[in-house]
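Sample intake sheet
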Amino acid sequence: MKTTVKQKSFFEEDDRLKRLTELGDQLVNISATIDFGMFRPLLDSAIVRKNSDLGGRPPWDNVLMFKVLLLQQWYNLADDKTEYVINDRLSFQRFLNLSLGDKVPDSKTIWLFREILMKSGKYETLFSMFEKEMEKRAIITRKGSIVDAAFVEVPKQRNTREENKKIKQGEGDQLFGDNKHKKRQKDVDARWTKKNNKTFYGYKDHIKVDKDSKMIVSYSATDASVHDSKELVNLLDEKDESLNADSAYVGEELHATIKEKYPNIKLNVNEKANRNKPLTEKQKESNRIKSKTRARGEHVFGHMTNSFGDRMIRTIGEARAKIQICLKNLAYNFCRYTFLCRVGKVKNPIPTKGYALAA
């Protein structure tokens, strides 16, 4: 039987993209809301590229590569999978302003871009730039702050008990002899911890969330063994009018330190029952009232888990974990801002040169 090959129409790609928009492509909403060009000067200062006179492929655009890193956070993708999916999905290509005829960054290029950005240390400035823009536009109001923390797990290490003991003592760099290939796969910065009889291995994302906008104002990345309360003072600043937190942040000494540094802050921290001293009904009712606000902070991590696929990262070492956690928090803020614009809660959205939403 003779097989006939259907001739492609010039407009087929546009028709398919239009249909993807109608079906609810969230990347369209983000592109129409976020002006990624605002990050170009900072990215260009962090990723310095030299055009060679000897020819060869020109360097990838820094904003395009930054958007690739965001795609990895939104869709929980490793570098190899990212390269494949960009080649496969029209929605990803449109988000990156690529056409079917354009080349796509390969996995090694993605890895290298993230490494250079990490070593520059300027990824944290990307986060603070957008936070300051949100505050400038009164989207982040700073009328109340919520603090919370969540585990960010990494692939578990198959070490011996003696190796784990030395890692915990800070002697991890001395392990594994001269086997550089084994060392490259060993995370000596991550830590084990236990919560509610469940063990976790990796790092922890400590965040401060604006009560009104539910956007992340500041964050701190530590290994998983660091208690939530240890990073609390570092997250606060003089703009915080009130602090809303769960019972993990109780403690007279901690509260005294906060009050000494920020005397005008109002503390709305859930009380905690102690052994042989249960909470009274009045304390329980007070906790219920406080939790109505405090729970908004948990929604942030809930969104990351449910919409981003997971909070797990696939990197080795604290330095790489920190940039991944920063990007994850920034990716969340982009999504949250896009949502606030879509529901009409933002009166003065950031002007963007992105394409408009399809009618």
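Comment: Confidence is low (pLDDT under 50) at residues 354-359. Residues 281-307 form the longest helix (27 residues).
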